[in-house]
Design a protein that fits this description.
Keywords: Cell membrane, Membrane, Transmembrane, Transmembrane helix. The chain has 399 residues and is an all-alpha fold. The protein has 16 helices and no strands. It has two domains: 179 residues, Growth Hormone, Chain: A (Up-down Bundle); 189 residues, Growth Hormone, Chain: A. The chain is globular.
Length: 399
């Protein structure tokens, strides 16, 4: 049974105030789901200096968060399909609030890592719950645009951690900043309770269909490879700029900001184009190929440093956008009863890539330098394009 809005509220169509409210709500929820990791990164120097958390522990938070999210994503979709998207969205926001509160109270490494591990559950629930809500309450013509904005919530979360919340830490201390984020998550949970329609009763199990299962598996593999490359760039781009290109710390950080800005624009723009029938699958291989070219630009920047800016922008425009288009592909063809499960399996691949990508890159950089490291990223994106190519051909045949 599909979620339906009460008749008095109406079902939001494209361009309506109702759809805009849902878009903002889902974007905020996606930002909150990963806010803990962005905050730890932004407040890392304060955690080391004021809380005595080691640099090694700070680095382990990324692996712990994404590793737990990848494991839980294998079953999170079933929870969403059985319990309902609204309940799970509210639950993920409250769990994120608890995780943030525990981080704010952390007095040692164990508590910090335990809090981050708990925060892996909201990450696992985020895409299944938000995608299922889009399928339920947004008209098909508007789903691509809503998905693009929703996926951009991750970048908005990074912005919130890096600017207003980091600035607040200078006034209230790092704990006050994290607790403020926890309170914000609770407020968004209350908003979700009021803004979304009640969940229906338990849904019947979706029918077993071999072809869609194979398609979802291909999208999960594509997302794994994409996640490996994106995570390596996110983690090491600024360090590459500082160590290899001689950029100052502030200017090196602008590289990440450039990637974030083009990532938002790419996710929204490409997702709008992907909203047409069959278009999402057709875009995945070209986007991955563009991401491969972006990684090669980063490799070439060792000899021509100005290319690093073009490479950073292109990673956002193609690789980061590719993740949003993948979610559009899932939503376009998901059975409403199994949309959560399909979304979770694809998200599991992406999170596993985020957990695996940076360590692989680090090992290669330590042994051979940044050039081969960026070559590995380019290879990951190239293989992703090859994995997605059959989807492009099938989409063309359907049209």
């Amino acid at each position: 049974m599909r979620l339906k809005r009460p008749e008095s509220r109406g079902r939001p169509g494209r361009g309506t105030a109702g759809q805009r409210r849902v878009t903002v709500l889902l974007t905020a929820a996606m930002g909150v789901s990963m806010l803990q990791l962005f905050l730890i990164g932004a407040l890392g120097p304060r955690l080391v200096a004021e809380a005595g958390i080691s640099r090694t522990a700070i680095g382990l938070t990324t692996t712990a968060g994404f590793g737990v999210a990848a494991l839980l994503s294998l079953t999170a979709g079933r929870w969403v399909d059985r319990l309902g998207a609204r309940r799970c969205l509210v639950a993920l926001l409250l769990l994120a609030a608890v995780a943030l509160a525990l981080i704010g109270a952390a007095a040692n490494t164990f508590v910090l890592l335990a809090a981050v591990a708990l925060g892996g559950l909201p990450q696992a629930l985020a895409n299944p719950a938000t995608n299922k809500i889009i399928v339920a309450v947004v008209e098909p013509a508007g789903r691509g645009a809503v998905t693009g904005w929703k996926q951009s919530g991750v970048q908005f979360g990074a912005f919130a951690a890096g600017l207003p919340l980091a600035a607040l830490a200078a006034w209230t201390g790092w704990r006050g900043s994290v607790w403020t984020a926890a309170a914000l998550a609770v407020l968004i949970a209350c908003w979700a309770l009021r803004a979304l329609p009640p969940d229906p009763g338990p849904a019947q199990a979706p029918p077993s269909r071999d072809a869609p299962r194979a398609r979802v598996g291909r999208l999960a593999l594509f997302s794994f490879l994409l996640g490996c490359g994106i995570a390596a760039v996110n983690t090491y781009l600024a360090l590459f700029g500082a160590e290899r290109l001689g950029l100052g710390p502030v200017v090196a950080a602008w590289l990440v900001a450039t990637l974030g800005v083009t990532g938002v624009a790419g996710r929204v723009g490409w997702s709008r184009r992907a909203g047409r029938p069959g278009r999402a699958e057709a875009l995945l291989a070209p986007l991955a190929a563009g991401a491969c070219g972006a990684a090669l630009l980063l490799a070439a920047a060792s000899s021509a440093p100005f290319l690093v800016w073009a490479g950073a922008a292109a990673v956002g425009a193609f690789a980061v956008a590719g993740n949003a288009v993948t979610m559009v592909a899932v939503i376009r063809r998901a059975d409403p009863r199994g949309a959560g499960r399909d979304s979770a399996l694809v998200s599991a691949g992406f999170f596993a890539g985020f957990a695996a990508g940076p360590p692989l890159f680090a090992v290669l950089v330590e042994t051979a330098g940044y050039g081969p490291g960026w070559g590995l990223v380019a290879a990951e994106f190239a293989v992703a394009a090859a994995v997605a190519a059959p989807l492009r051909f099938r989409a063309g045949a359907r049209r």
